[in-house]
Amino acid sequence: MDKDILKFVTDEVEKGNKVSFTILTDADGSSPGKAGAMMAISENGKTIGTVGGGSLENKIMIEAKKAIINERDIEFDYNLGEKGDLGMLCGGNVKGYTKIFYPQNKIIIVGAGHVGKAVYEIAATLDFEVTVLDDREEYANKDNFPNANIIVGEYADILERLETDKTTAIVIVTRGHAYDKIAVEKLINKESFYIGMIGSKNKVYATLQEIKKDDRYKKSIDKLYAPIGLDIGSNRVKEIALGILCEIFLVKNGKKPAFMRDLFQEKIKKNG
Question: What would the mean pLDDT of 82-96 be, rounded to a whole number?
Fold first, then answer.
């Protein structure tokens, strides 16, 4: 059973789901769960294993699901007596730990030029699985992108076959307006948590106007971040890349740009 639980965690993470894994580290008295008991819950609601059933397991499941949402590991220590945390009659004490396992984020960089290379260099330090696509082998190769998956070919062909999921971020930074348009058309309806396209305001506007004429993209075009990245007041390639990665993480975490200092000051005012 223990092996099945660990396999469940691995399989669910590989499918792109966050998973909580709970183990009882200590149990005494008449606890329904014993030390070493394990349980795992996927964010899609699937569960496996048991930590004793009853009120104890229900409480642990509730907290484990919260931990998935909050993306935070937790320790717990429950008194199982009548006057304890759960109002149980069995007596004893249970301690345990819930750890959250996360799927690896993927980033697909469409375009192996200067900006694409700069995005890769930062993303490679952030535990992304990186895929780089271009139609030029002299740019998209292991010398320039040593730890990336490299795909070379005509954009229309390779993007059509590309597989994505909810853990995927897509960065479109090709060498020209026409290629950007192809990339958006091939990728905008695929699953991803982020898709962005580089370009000046005029080029982005022109591209979007053309794409919006096609009914196939009307329902999904609004999820495109274009022009890509945060406005950090710089035209330097590496700083543009940093702005792109910052935007990706803001979208991933459901946040908007804000200075921590300002949030701190707001908290002080509310508590003042």
Answer: 65
Average pLDDT of 10-36?
A: 87
Residues 6+ apart with CB under 8 A from 248: 107, 169, 171, 194, 196
Amino acid at residue number 129:
E
Compute how many other C-beta atoms are within 10 angstroms of the C-beta atom of residue 85. 16
The continuous run of DSSP H or E covering 8 comes out as: helix 2-14
Phi, psi (rounded to 5 degrees) for 171:
-120, 115
Q: Report which residue type is found at 214.
A: D
Rounded to whole angstroms, how far apart are CA atoms 75 and 42?
A: 19
What integer best gives the mean pLDDT of the chain? 90
- Helical H segments across 131-233, by residue range: 155-160, 177-187, 201-212
- The listed range with the strongest mean pLDDT (167-176, 213-222, 252-261) is 167-176
Q: Which long-range contacts (CB under 8 A, 24 or more apart) does 253-258 make?
A: 257/230
Dist CA 74 CA 85 (whole Å): 16
The single-letter DSSP state of residue 50 is: -
Token pair, residue 37, equals: 């008991």
β-strands 38-42, 47-49 pairing: antiparallel
Sole residue written with tokens 């795909």: 151
CA-based nearest residue to 116, from 156, 144, 147, 77:
144
